[in-house]
Design a protein that fits this description.
single chain; 393 residues; alpha/beta; four-stranded antiparallel beta sheet; disordered C terminus; binds pyridoxal-5'-phosphate
């Protein structure tokens, strides 16, 4: 006889049944979408500069490829073989060196699930992309967090934290949220020192914005290195969710074992493939990011604000005072930035017009705070404590 659900005994809660490894995990909270802020505040125009999206949008070729495929949406995608082959050719790698994922986010998760066992250690930097901590936690691994040095990955300190239990190391190059890069020389030395029981993940989500990127594919043949990239940033396809891993074919085969079928869609594959052919769109996006960044930084400097020199499509600013009211003031004026670490914010480089308008809003917020006398100017010791805070997980 079956018990009707309504008369079932109350239980002690599902928490007890959950995998204990997931309990400390804090679900990712995305920033408020512009549409919601628009509705809530009754603003006509809201600009989101919080997620490092490409303000140029996707390549027209990607849009055309999507339109062509719309009548075929009743069919499952194939394994993305055409895109995989194109990526191998483009990067000069052997066939079988690419795994496609539902964004670089899925690829990073697959890497963690492929390699991590409970008790393993995962090394990453702070501040860096927080998803590295989450995927480690989900696998029951221990996170070892190494502070940035002068806002850059401290590869010597990271190497010094390698133990017999270290399994994975994540290095974002450029780093999110600071936009800083490690030098090719420092990376070469670091890779050279890696023991054989460690897999190094080089997250190159923003590498296309970098002037002189390190030749990381050279590492793949003789070290356990996986390079992760995405179409979300320079290709302007964040909404379609497609990224990829580049590694030796034997490593890719391992990652494929843990991937659910069909995680990259027909439209995402086609748009990504078409965007690979659009060098013009990529070059224009890179140039616009560079000039937009220079414009933003020039204004930040004029306002006497501290920021980190960036190679990516965003800038990390330290306001040296509580960032929450500043971010809130910007939202009230129609600009969403990403506040973090109490006193800092990451600001995505928008179009020239967006940057100009953001700067006006920022000046207005800072002036209002001065006039309102919300916070007194900070003493030298408070400044020092603040910059120290930046380096603490
Ligand atoms: C360093 C870094 N890696 C990976 C990702 C994830 O990219 P995707 O949109 O492909 O999931 C991001 C997204 O912002 C990122 O900043």
């Amino acid at each position: 006889m079956t018990t009707p659900l309504s008369s079932a005994r109350p239980t002690a809660g599902c928490r007890l049944l959950a995998n204990p490894a997931i309990l400390p995990v804090r679900p990712y909270v995305p920033g408020k979408p512009a549409s919601e802020v628009r509705r809530e505040l009754g603003l006509l125009d809201v600009v989101k500069l919080a997620s490092n999206e490409n303000p140029a949008g996707p390549s027209p070729r990607a849009l055309a490829a999507i339109r062509d495929l719309l009548p075929e949406l009743h069919l499952y995608p194939d394994g993305g073989d055409e895109l995989r082959r194109a990526l191998c050719r483009r990067h000069g790698l052997a066939p079988g060196s690419v795994l496609l994922g539902h964004g670089a986010t899925e690829v990073l998760d697959l890497i963690a699930r492929t390699f991590l066992c409970s008790g393993d250690e995962v090394i990453s930097a702070h501040p860096s992309f927080p998803w590295y901590l989450t995927v480690g936690q989900l696998a029951g691994a221990t996170s070892v967090v190494v502070p940035l040095r002068d806002h850059v990955h401290d590869l010597d300190a990271m190497a010094a934290r390698v133990t017999a239990s270290t399994k994975l190391i994540f290095v974002a190059n450029p780093n999110n949220p600071t936009g800083t890069t490690v030098t090719a020389r420092a990376l070469d030395d670091f890779v050279e020192r890696l023991p054989d029981h460690v897999v190094l993940v080089l997250d190159e989500a923003y590498i296309e914005y970098v002037d002189d990127p390190p030749a990381t594919f050279d590492y793949l043949a003789h070290r356990h290195v996986i390079v992760v990239r995405t179409f979300s940033k320079i290709a302007g396809l964040a909404g379609l969710r497609i990224g990829y891993a580049l590694a030796r074919p034997d490593v890719i085969e391992l990652l494929e074992k843990v991937q659910a079928p069909f995680t990259t869609t027909v439209l995402a594959q086609a748009a990504a493939l078409a965007s690979l052919d659009d060098d013009e769109h990529r070059a224009a996006s890179r140039t616009a990011a560079r000039s937009g960044r220079e414009l933003l930084c020039a204004h930040l400097a004029r306002l006497g604000l501290h920021f980190v020199s960036s190679q990516a499509n965003f800038v990390f600013v330290d306001f040296e005072t509580s960032v929450a009211p500043i971010a809130d003031g910007l939202v009230q004026r129609g600009f969403i930035v990403r506040p973090m670490l109490d006193s800092c914010a990451r600001i995505t480089v928008g179009t020239t017009a967006q940057t100009a308008a953001l700067v006006v809003a920022l000046e207005d917020v800072l002036r209002a705070r001065e006039v309102g006398g919300v916070e007194p100017p900070r003493s030298e010791s408070a400044r020092t404590a603040q910059s120290r805070h930046l380096a603490v997980p």
